[in-house]
Design a protein that fits this description.
The chain has 161 residues and is of the alpha/beta class. The protein has five helices and four strands; from the N terminus they run H-E-H-E-H-E-H-E-H. A four-stranded parallel β-sheet has the order 3-2-1-4, sandwiched between helices.
Length: 161
Amino acid sequence: MADNYLEKRMEEYRAGKLAPKRQIVHVPASKKSGDFCLSFDCLNVIVLGGCFALASAVVEAFRKVDCRVALCHASEKECRVLVQRSGCRYYPFDPCDEERRDYVVDDVEARWGGVDVVVDLRSVDACPSERVDDTATLMLLHSHPAFSFITSTSTTIRMPI
């Protein structure tokens, strides 16, 4: 009888049934007059390459609103720290490789049920550090479902002289 109990408990442990249930509680911020607040549903986001500082800021902006993020970037060493800090999924390869990009899209669809947003930063080589957070926030806002009329945006980042 003890063997059956232990076997059953071991099966439950392996299946993850014994793990404590995590409960996420969202507390809305107090609104002041003139505030504009958006609620984000869980979006599945793929971020492709680009300037690491900007890619990092975009990943963190989407993770702050509980989106699932997959990052495709060639800077493996820098991305490992970002992945551990933010909790995104990382695919270590050059995002210009079309075959690998297709694999990422297929993998994300299989794991998460689809891709809602693709942030393609491959054409951004550098971004001024003071504009990184603003640009990431703008990309986050543009991906909100309330702004579904925006299908594509292009940014030109001008470096100060």
